[in-house]
Amino acid sequence: MTSEEAANERRPRGRGKSRSTDQAATESAGIRSNPRRELVEKQIIEQATRLFAERGFASTTLQDIADATGLTRPALYHYVANKDELLSRLVSESTETPAALLHTINERTDLGPTEKLREMATAIALHQAQAPDRFQLIVRSEAELPEDISRNYEQSRRHVLKEFIRVVEDGIRAGEMRPVDPRTAALAVIGMLNWIAWWHQPGNAVDDRVIATQLADMAVRSLVHQDPQSATPEGPARAIAMLRQDLNYLERLLDESRPD
């Protein structure tokens, strides 16, 4: 790609057009109100995802995306300004949107920690099951992400982790979940849910929902408080199991209370 072509990849939408500002604004408003726009944008995102995955972000041009979508390059500028905007949308849909959804669930007052965890795990599992290719693309392209997009991506990942840590901590305090390390537990749950993107084939809404529900149930069962009495026979072994669980919890609290 020449330096001129590279510059064009990042040019603002509409630059170099001879239309008046009022005319451009009117046409833009008409495009936004046209339901066809959503369909075209969806096709653009799908083709961009495929091309970025196949060729890499740096090696894919807007002309490649226009050709794959069946648009001319000038027409493509009606929907997207540059490649960075496309990648930013992909990152937002894959990480920022789930983070916001998790926060909304965590703020609900009609659910306890266990129910919140189930809702959160189901939401993430369903999100990954429905669009695994986008998550795969972002993971593979981490090293190529522009600085501002990379920063937003990392921030969203931290927000997702924070919300899962919060619900586990609330579950432990409420006595609904075992006294485990919340961060370790949150990372384990997130890892299990994200892994869907690498083995699930999307396309069947019923299958997506069944898988999401099953994995959410597994996440909850891995953390809910288990009464040693139901898992261990009566006698010294049960007493030791109860003491070990309490000592692990106490040890973690002491570690957290120590000054740095």
UniProtKB/TrEMBL annotation:
<dbReference type="InterPro" id="IPR036271">
    <property type="entry name" value="Tet_transcr_reg_TetR-rel_C_sf"/>
</dbReference>
<protein>
    <submittedName>
        <fullName>TetR/AcrR family transcriptional regulator</fullName>
    </submittedName>
</protein>
<dbReference type="InterPro" id="IPR041490">
    <property type="entry name" value="KstR2_TetR_C"/>
</dbReference>
<dbReference type="Pfam" id="PF17932">
    <property type="entry name" value="TetR_C_24"/>
</dbReference>
<keyword id="KW-0805">Transcription regulation</keyword>
<feature type="DNA-binding region" description="H-T-H motif">
    <location>
        <begin position="61"/>
        <end position="80"/>
    </location>
</feature>
<keyword id="KW-0804">Transcription</keyword>
<dbReference type="InterPro" id="IPR023772">
    <property type="entry name" value="DNA-bd_HTH_TetR-type_CS"/>
</dbReference>
<dbReference type="GO" id="GO:0003700">
    <property type="term" value="F:DNA-binding transcription factor activity"/>
</dbReference>
<keyword id="KW-0238">DNA-binding</keyword>
<dbReference type="Pfam" id="PF00440">
    <property type="entry name" value="TetR_N"/>
</dbReference>
<dbReference type="InterPro" id="IPR009057">
    <property type="entry name" value="Homeodomain-like_sf"/>
</dbReference>
<feature type="domain" description="HTH tetR-type">
    <location>
        <begin position="38"/>
        <end position="98"/>
    </location>
</feature>
<dbReference type="InterPro" id="IPR001647">
    <property type="entry name" value="HTH_TetR"/>
</dbReference>
<dbReference type="GO" id="GO:0000976">
    <property type="term" value="F:transcription cis-regulatory region binding"/>
</dbReference>
<dbReference type="InterPro" id="IPR050109">
    <property type="entry name" value="HTH-type_TetR-like_transc_reg"/>
</dbReference>
<feature type="region of interest" description="Disordered">
    <location>
        <begin position="1"/>
        <end position="35"/>
    </location>
</feature>
